[in-house]
Amino acid sequence: MEVVMKNIYTSCDSENTNAVHVSKLIDFITPYMMEDLSALENLRKLLDPENADICVTSEKFYEAMNEWIQQISSFSTQEDSIFNKTPSVLEVIDEGQLPYIQSTPRASFGQKILNCEGLLNLSNVSAYSLSSSTYGKDNMGQEKTILEEELKRLEHHLNKVSSELVIAKLQLTATEEQNDILQSDLDRCKTRLHSEQQIIEHLQLDKKYSDELRDELNANKKQIEELNKKISQYEKDNHHLLSVIKGTEDENAKLEEKCEELSRREQEAKKEIIDIKTELDLKDQEITMVIKVNDELRSRLGQQRDIIDQLTNENELLQHEKNNLEKALRCDLSSRRESLVHKYKTFLVDSAGSASIGTIPVYTKQSISSNSCNVVEQQPPQPSTVDSPILPLPRKRSLLETA
User: Fold this and answer.
1) Are 11 and 100 in contact (CB under 8 A)?
2) What are residue 56's DSSP bridge partners?
3) Torsion angle of alpha carbons 291, 293, 295, 298, nearest 10°?
4) Which of 110, 143, 254, 280 is a plausible cystine mate for 32, CB 3.0–4.6 Å?
5) CA 379, CA 92: separation in Å to the nearest integer?
6) 132 within 8 A of 78, measured Cβ to Cβ
7) Is residue 313 within 8 Å of 386, Cβ to Cβ?
8) Which residues of 64-88 are buried (b: 16+ CB within 10 A; e: fewer)?
């Protein structure tokens, strides 16, 4: 029986914390005790006297279960007392039927507990009873008789459990059908509750709207009273205004005559304004033409300035080239002059050495230089061997500087 109690507790203590709520244990055992709920209530009182859904340990659960089994065994039937006399009844409980993984118990095991309350009293079987079963091995005939009786009892118990299983299945089917009916009733009640809640909300909105209308009606009544007072005051003011209107009508007639005169003058003024606008339009057209001609002249002036700037730049470039050519020519002339002077000196030295041979004409320095100048003037200018310095080109004048 300890194995059964241990399996019940471990099935409820899936996290292995050695602390399970009493409600969880009772819910686990309830399907097995549907026909004896008073005994189940006694077990709850043993585990939780104050009904506070406390957590109990495995030791406390085993103690309460043993006490509870003893209470149940005192009301057991004669057939159940026969089962308690032999330890072989332990084989009736199939541990494979216990829910080791699932927390929901099986109906077959529940029917066994419901109808075989004596099975829960297996903890009363002592070691002496177990030893006494082996004590009579000398008398084989008596043991055979006991085994045959045990076999018959087990067959009777198997038939009884099978019939109870069928009954449990029928009860389960009826319970499921009743559950479906109750579920449909619950859905219908929920729908009705929802509709009733909507009706209540609409009624609350109507009540709120009625209160607002009542407040608005009271405010309108007060406003009507105030308006009646104002109407009486306005009637008095109206009589006064009628007298004032008669006076203003006379003044209005005079003012209409003045308005006619002013309208006539206004027509004349409008005619003059139209004439002035026509003249202004003509002047605007003339101004537009003058501006257009002025723009064309400005564009031409800009083009002419660009041409002048271009010619000025070309003139400066030509002037620069002219200066470079003159400088190169002067350098060439100076080099030729030096060459002639050198030749003249060489000629003097040679003439001094050959004075005894014959008479050699003597040239003066001035004659040589004059002859060399004549030769230079007659010959075209040759390119100078001396590199002329590169002068910077003149900067192009911008249109703003030209302006």
Assistant:
1) yes
2) 20
3) -130
4) 110
5) 153
6) no
7) no
8) bbbebbeebbeebeeebeebbebee
Give which of 16, 24, 20 is closest to 103, Cα–Cα: 24
Residue 295: what residue type?
D
DSSP label at 55? E
Q: What element of type H or E holds 20?
A: strand 20-21
Distance CA 132, CA 126 (A): 10
Helix (H) or strand (E) run with residue 56 in it: strand 55-56
Question: In this structure, which amino acid lies at residue 286?
Answer: E
Question: Residue holding tokens 């509709």?
Answer: 195
Rounded distance between C-alpha atoms, residue 213 and residue 207, angstroms: 10
Q: How far apart are CA 95 and CA 6, in angstroms?
A: 11
Q: Residue 153: helix, strand or coil by DSSP?
A: helix
Q: Residue 32 has what DSSP assignment?
A: G
- Helix/strand number for the chain, H first, E second: 10, 2
Closest CA to 157 of 222, 200, 112: 112
What distance in Å separates the CA atoms of residue 125 and residue 131, rounded to the nearest whole number?
A: 11
Q: Which DSSP string do the residues of 57-84 spell out, in sequence order?
A: -HHHHHHHHHHHHHHHHTT--HHHHHHH
Tokens 């723009």 locate to: 295
Q: What is the mean pLDDT of the chain?
A: 74
Q: Domain residues of the chain, as ranges?
A: 2-138, 299-354+361-402
| Mean pLDDT value across residues 231-236 | 88
The answer to whether 220 touches 212, Cβ cutoff 8 Å, is no
Name the token pair of 10: 């471990």
Query: What SS3 state is found at 191?
Result: helix
pLDDT tens string 255-277: 888 888 998 889 999 999 999 99
Length of the chain: 403
Separation of alpha carbons 5 and 39, rounded Å: 16
CA neighbours closer than 13 Å in the CB half-sphere of residue 214: 6
The conformation of residue 403, written as its DSSP 8-state character, comes to -
Name residue 21's beta-bridge partners: 55
Residue 173: per-residue pLDDT: 83
Structure tokens at 337: 């002059």
